[in-house]
Amino acid sequence: MKCLAAFLVLLLAGCGLQRESSAEKLDRIIASHRVDSVVLASLSSTNIVTGSPVQRYVEALSYTNRTAPSSNTAHLRLVTRVSLMSGTRQVALLSQYDTGEWQCGDVFFRLAVSP
Q1: Is the Cβ–Cβ distance between 71 and 58 less than 8 Å?
Q2: 97 vs 29: CA distance, rounded Å
C-alpha cells in the first residue's frame, strides 16, 4: 500500500510538469543564436549553408514569420530535410514538404517569407 501511495504522489507531481513543445523548442534554438550551419538534404542532393546566410535562414523560421498550415496535412510529400547545426551537433530537424508546409516535431506551419 505504501508503494502505491508513493507511486501516486510521483505520478501527480509529474503531471504538473509540462514538456516543452516543438514550437517552443524551435523558438528557443532560434533565440540562442547558436546555429552555425544549416544542412539541406533532399533525395537528389545535400547542401550545407554556412557563414552569414545561416542567420538569415534561421530568422526566416522565427515565430513572427510562421503562419497556420493548410487544413490537409495528410498527403504531403517530403522535399527537404533541414538540420540546424551547432558545430557537429544537430539542434533541430525540420521537414519541408511539396505544398510549402513545414514540420518541426509535431507542429506544422507555413512561412510567410521563404528562407
Answers
A1: no
A2: 22
Residues 28 and 46: beta-carbon distance below 8 Å: no
In a domain, 84, yes or no: yes
Using an 8 Å Cβ cutoff, are 108 and 99 in contact? no
User: Does any domain span residue 15?
Assistant: no
- Locate 20 and state its grid cell: 516543452
**pTM of the model as a whole:** 0.76
pLDDT digits (tens, 9 = 90+) for 76-111: 899 999 999 999 999 999 999 998 899 998 888 999
- Give the total number of structural domains in the chain: 1
Cβ atoms of 44 and 93 within 8 Å: the answer is no
Residue 93 lies in a domain: yes
Q: Name the 3-class secondary structure at 103.
A: strand
Residue 13 lies in a domain: no
Look up residue 78 and give its three cell numbers: 517530403
Domain that holds residue 71: 21-111
* 88: DSSP letter: T
